[in-house]
Amino acid sequence: MRGRSGEVDDRPGPRDNGYRGEPPRIAVLIPCYNEAVAVAQVVKDFQIALPDAAIFVFDNNSTDDTVAVARAAGAAVFSEQRQGKGFVVRRMFSDVEADIYVLVDGDATYDAPSAPKMVARLLDDRLDMVVGTRVDREVEAYRAGHRTGNWLLTSFVATVFGPTFNDMLSGYRVFSRRFVKSFPMLSGGFEVETELTVHALELGLAVAEIETPYFARPDGSVSKLNTWRDGFRILWMIAQLYRSERPLPFFGVIGYALVVASIALAAPVVVTFWETGLVPRLPTAVLAMGMMLLAFLSFAVGLVLDTVTRGRREMKLLAFLGHRAPGEERRRS
């Protein structure tokens, strides 16, 4: 097969990975919003790269000819009325049945010939997610603001949740069935990649990265990303995930801050009382006492929620383990 640059690509496909028995069902999932310029190329590239795969385009209220173009290119086309990439991905994960899922944006910026290699890696190593790390081949492909934002967010997630991927916000991923069918997605927008990453880190799932070429959008195609707006939304999602997945450190920091503030307010009052036996600043004393009580309450809330979170994590892991490992779905069916 040939890549975007035209050279012959002899990278191994999913049939070349030592898989025994009936080959896995592969679904290519393409979320789209006003991608009439690029979606046909994406569909055709993946038809060549993964000839046995079923290709699904989920349209998200496009106002151009995305639906007609995708259908004419040979994809199965569905619609999601709720606006936002997260809602579209949630619908795709719920409705599409397959053994291996390839998630890719419909803007023709990702390299379709890399898909067989990613699928083969997932099956060979029995992984649950393979992320296509973007290596830009054109200056216009990866804007400086997006590159910097991606690095900052990836570094922050690595600090909070542990070592993570080099390209946390990549929209090119391959999943096992058990990952897709046990993933409790909550986000509604572009922060979906962050949620996918944190879910894998929290459960300690087997994951990997593979470098893939990243291209500029075709002429006439416009990016829907807003560096600042979507960056703040992703930061807010990270904060929410930290609160829900790491409640003890989260509420512990709040409690510690309240203790420090309470001591700072109470110290002069205590000194005055020690010297004169009077409490002339009673409101300050009451405020300091109230802040100390809130600090202890914050610590208690963190401890309780930490126990609840552990139970939720165990439930998610049990739901995940309820599905067979990659390569076993069709073999035992």
Q: How is this structure best summarized?
A:
The protein is α/β, with parallel strands linked by helices. The chain is 50% helix and 12% strand.
CATH architecture of the largest domain: Alpha-Beta Complex
Please identify which CATH superfamily of the largest domain we are dealing with.
Spore Coat Polysaccharide Biosynthesis Protein SpsA, Chain A
Overall geometry: elongated
Please state the CA-atom Rg, rounded to the nearest Å: 25 Å
Strand segment count: 7
Q: Can you count the helices?
A: 11
Oligomer type: single chain
Structural class call reads alpha/beta
Cα distance spanning the termini: 32 Å
Helix content: 40-55%
Q: Helix-strand pattern, N to C?
A: EHEHEHEHEHEHHEHHHH
Could you say what the CATH topology of the largest domain is called?
Answer: Spore Coat Polysaccharide Biosynthesis Protein SpsA, Chain A
**Count of structural domains:** 2
Indicate the proportion of strand residues: 5-15%
In this structure, how is the largest beta sheet organized?
7 strands, mixed
Global mean pLDDT: 84
Strand order of the largest sheet: 3-2-1-4-6-5-7
The low-confidence runs, each spanning 5 or more residues with pLDDT under 50, are 1-19
CATH domain class of the largest domain: Alpha Beta
